[in-house]
Structures are given as structure tokens and as C-alpha cells.
Design a protein that fits this description.
By secondary structure, the chain is α+β, with helices and mostly antiparallel strands. The protein is built from five helices and seven strands.
Length: 157
Amino acid sequence: MKVSVRLDFSPVTSDLAAIVHELYLNCPTYISLIGGDMPTLNDIRRELDTLRHDTRRQALLLMQENRPVGFLDYKVAYPDLHSATISLLLIEEKLQGQGLGKAAVEQLEAQLSSRMDRLYAVVYGSNEQAKRFWERVGFEHLRDSGPTLSWYMKSLK
């Protein structure tokens, strides 16, 4: 049963790397679809440390009732000043299909709509489930950048 979902967005810093790592561990299908190796805790720490140096990039834990259920990584003013791009929306595998991803996207759209005209999303690998998700939440397929990257776009105005 799907219900209306409200998530809290909590900024991620490198001291929360273990929580983000646990979310990745709970999403083995995603890792296999993108054809990569499961990131280590040190990989996550390095990535979160890198975030601190890019003020346009945002990493958020998606919290439901004080429990982390997902991770959102996006960048504002990319690929242009009036756009933002979601590079990762990761929902814990056992919780997928319950409206959490849709809620996260809707809440992000609401936050960005006053300052961004468009929201992009990228899909890595042969992730047909993710492609269908972006289309279901109103994004249009824009282009494929080779065999491993697909771009989707939604107008916020």
C-alpha cells in the first residue's frame, strides 16, 4: 500500500560516511546494474570529503521517522546556471516501491523551483528500472551519452 510520504533532508558530512555506506550495502542490485564494485567505507569518506570543496554539490540523507532510508546527491547550477542535476537517488532496496523516491524528488523540486528552471537526472548503466522511475515522476528522456549514461529533464517553471 502506497501512502503519502514526507521525508526529512539531512546534510551529509564525512562523519556520516558509515550511514551512507550502509545504504549502499543495502542496494546491491544498483551496484550490479551500474557495473561497478561496491564502494568501501573509505571510498565513501573520500567522496564526502570531496563534496566539501564544491559548494554547488549537495549530499543529503533521506530520513523517515529519524531513520535513514536513502541518499540524494545533486548539483545546482549544473549544467547551466538555471539548472540542477541529480546524480544519485538511492533508496534502500527493501523500501523501494513505497513512494520514497517520488517524495524525495517532489520535495527537491519544491525547494529548487524558486531558483532553478530545470531539473536533470542522470542514469548510469543499464538501469531500466531507474529510467522508468524518472519518466513516471514527469521527467523526459533527453539523450544518451554513450551506452552507460542517460539524461532526463523536467521543467520546474
